[in-house]
């Protein structure tokens, strides 16, 4: 079967987060297993997945959300469900459990509700403001023309001095924005978008600490920009 060929035949769980956690330009899988443990399936060059279990003395809640909670450029996880919300920070290639938020229980949502560039947590009908003094950030709001207006399905890459991050706009993305942490970088070398309709678009150097609304170029996915130079 295809699942066995990809190394996913034992992947059973209640929730899945799909992100490029190790920043090799291939999407990895974070799975909340049926036993309440976190399993990471690293994508090996688009050919197969290799599982990496995350040890845990206690089980995790059954639902996963991903975001860069400290703006260090690495995506973290929040696990919610029955019991306190559990944060897991991505550090040195592994997810490390943080202290559980004992005052939380039930559904959760991650977004920058107060527009300060830091991802907050909504749960129990209240917003927990992020007070982390982490790194810098940049927001990308994708607006489609020939693709859907919300840019759902657009693949967005940003390049800073020492890393390339890749994310995708999904239906659950709050207000259609992607919030990228860029650590100590004060600028982004380029932003590259692949729109659902096939149009490729690149924006050059820009400063961190701002929200950019990028509108899809009005051309067909098969067309290519032509660069002219004076002889």
From TrEMBL:
<feature type="domain" description="ASPIC/UnbV">
    <location>
        <begin position="151"/>
        <end position="212"/>
    </location>
</feature>
<dbReference type="Pfam" id="PF07593">
    <property type="entry name" value="UnbV_ASPIC"/>
</dbReference>
<keyword id="KW-0732">Signal</keyword>
<dbReference type="InterPro" id="IPR027039">
    <property type="entry name" value="Crtac1"/>
</dbReference>
<dbReference type="InterPro" id="IPR011519">
    <property type="entry name" value="UnbV_ASPIC"/>
</dbReference>
<dbReference type="InterPro" id="IPR013517">
    <property type="entry name" value="FG-GAP"/>
</dbReference>
<dbReference type="InterPro" id="IPR028994">
    <property type="entry name" value="Integrin_alpha_N"/>
</dbReference>
<protein>
    <recommendedName>
        <fullName>ASPIC/UnbV domain-containing protein</fullName>
    </recommendedName>
</protein>
<dbReference type="Pfam" id="PF13517">
    <property type="entry name" value="FG-GAP_3"/>
</dbReference>
């Amino acid at each position: 079967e295809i699942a066995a060929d990809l190394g996913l035949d034992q992947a059973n769980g209640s929730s899945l987060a799909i992100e490029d956690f190790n920043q090799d330009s291939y999407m990895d899988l974070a799975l909340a297993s049926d036993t309440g443990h976190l399993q990471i399936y690293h994508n090996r060059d688009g050919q197969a997945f290799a599982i990496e279990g995350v040890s845990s003395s206690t089980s995790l809640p059954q639902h996963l959300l991903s975001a860069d909670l400290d703006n260090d450029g690495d995506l973290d996880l929040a696990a919610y469900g029955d019991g306190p919300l559990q944060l897991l920070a991505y550090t040195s290639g592994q997810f490390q459990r943080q202290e559980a938020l004992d005052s939380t229980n039930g559904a959760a949502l991650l977004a920058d509700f107060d527009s300060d560039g830091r991802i907050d947590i909504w749960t129990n009908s209240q917003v927990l403001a992020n007070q982390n003094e982490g790194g810098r950030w940049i927001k990308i709001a994708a607006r489609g023309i020939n693709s859907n207006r919300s840019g759902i399905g657009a693949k967005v890459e940003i390049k800073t001095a020492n890393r390339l991050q890749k994310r995708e706009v999904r239906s659950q993305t709050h207000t259609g924005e992607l919030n990228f942490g860029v650590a100590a970088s004060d600028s982004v070398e380029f932003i590259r978008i692949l729109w659902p309709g096939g149009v490729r678009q690149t924006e050059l150097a820009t400063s961190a600490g701002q929200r950019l609304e990028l509108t899809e170029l009005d051309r067909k996915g098969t067309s290519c920009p032509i660069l002219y130079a004076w002889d």
